[in-house]
Design goal:
The protein has about 130 residues and is an all-alpha fold. It has a domain of about 70 residues. Helices cover about 75% and strands about 0% of the residues. It is built from four helices and no strands. The longest helix is centred in the C-terminal third of the chain and has 34 residues. It is extended and about 70 Å long. One of its GO terms (molecular function) is cytoskeletal motor activity. Belongs to the FliE family. Keywords: Bacterial flagellum.
């Protein structure tokens, strides 16, 4: 058998086993004792729904601001510390760390911008 058929066969078996385990797991309800133990610990169980999108990032602009806002704050902190060092009110090591953090934050912002531009260009290339 070619390797691709073997891997496809194994993949299909794994998916079927997962689906079978998932349906069996939903059929078995935890006992009241298990529920009482898990309740204060906030234990996740199969089939639990997790909201990974915050209310702010539900919109595209919210998502962008959630990514960019902390980076802008780091850049502003670096600017403030560099101004303080000019006035001899700040330790040079702290200023160097803040400037390094600001540089990294700027790199992140530029990378995010580039990804958005690339995604926009790919959307423009799509046929209608």
């Amino acid at each position: 058998m070619p390797t691709s058929k073997i891997s496809t066969n194994h993949f299909n078996k794994a998916v079927n086993a997962y689906n079978k385990a998932l349906t069996n797991n939903k059929a078995i309800a935890p006992s009241k004792e298990q529920q009482q133990i898990a309740q204060p610990l906030n234990v996740l169980r199969a089939g639990d729904v997790i909201d990974v999108v915050s209310k702010q990032s539900a919109s595209f602009s919210g998502l962008v601001s959630e990514i960019v806002a902390p980076q802008i704050k780091k850049i502003q902190e670096g600017e403030k510390k560099s101004t303080k060092v000019i006035n001899s009110k700040e330790d040079l090591v702290e200023v160097a760390a803040a400037i390094n953090s600001a540089g990294t934050a700027l790199d992140i912002i530029v990378t995010v911008r580039d990804k958005f531009i690339n995604a926009y260009q790919e959307i423009l290339k799509m046929p209608l």
